């Protein structure tokens, strides 16, 4: 089993942290985004969307899309569960993770892809060209601000993002916050005290270095 | 178990078709989007994002997000599987469904939400206000056109969207095409012969009436 990834890619980091939390043995294969290796014929053959990460199984099946890779790894290695342990827990974790991804992670990504000069005709990741839309930069940052205020309300009454236990939703949230801090200068607001306390706790886990 | 839904909501239809395919006994509770019942206090208590559908379990747990509801129903009622039957099959179906959703379904939704006068300050579903961005209408329609050409390439060599068997990815694709046809006047292109043949086959299933 090999994970094609990039060290600087937040989506790759989401899978690396899960691998570290569960202590799995997965070979990491770097893809050099700087030279657009993700658009090479060799990489397109395993991921036609030309994005990292991709999990390549020993039988040749290639799995893309971060939450799908994470869920596959959980299914084949259920020890140290990160999606809960019952259908109801899996539903709550899955729902929460998807909302964090749509409202937080995707908003940061959208702000960057519509800003960076090098992505001028690639405002959406994938094989097709799309022009940048400057109005989206403003709107994406509003969405990140709302993501922080909604997260603060939620963490006031909950130890972790999807409930009492650390889960994949905490991984998505940690990566989103580091991504917003480093790439669009939107760190956790000073007033978001519950988010700050949660962040200290989660960033202290060894997996956060992955 | 109750599904809060709206007859005219494509996201609700995705769950209704799965229920019909699997022959499940789920009570349907209508939510009147015309009077913005989704923003009522009663509905917000079960879905703070104020969108349909929501699956309310008998123990009070509320599950939102279409693929999460679908996967929960599959887990508790595995007969007539719509996600495959092995971890590898579930990964391929999940990956394919997510791409159809992101590239097809979400593009149609984005075109509409940035167009319709009644959604002027609600360009993104949920509790927060976001202004419409006219440039997104153009870009969303380009994305729908690319969705059709990518789908045509895929269905030339595959009986169903995620492989040899009918799956939840076919449900998402059917609903996306009907949504594009009816809401933004983008039916299947004449040249997409494999998509047209697939559509005839899938639309003939009784579940498509759900």
TrEMBL record, chains A, B:
One of its GO terms (molecular function) is transferase activity. Keywords: Transferase. This is Glutathione S-transferase. The lineage of its organism: Bacteria, Pseudomonadati, Pseudomonadota, Alphaproteobacteria, Hyphomicrobiales. Residues 1-81 form the GST N-terminal domain. Residues 86-210 form the GST C-terminal domain. SUPFAM superfamilies: GST C-terminal domain-like (SSF47616), Thioredoxin-like (SSF52833). Signal peptide: none annotated. CDD domains: GST_N_GTT2_like. It comes from Rhizobium jaguaris. It comes from the Bacteria. Pfam families: GST_C_3, GST_N_3.
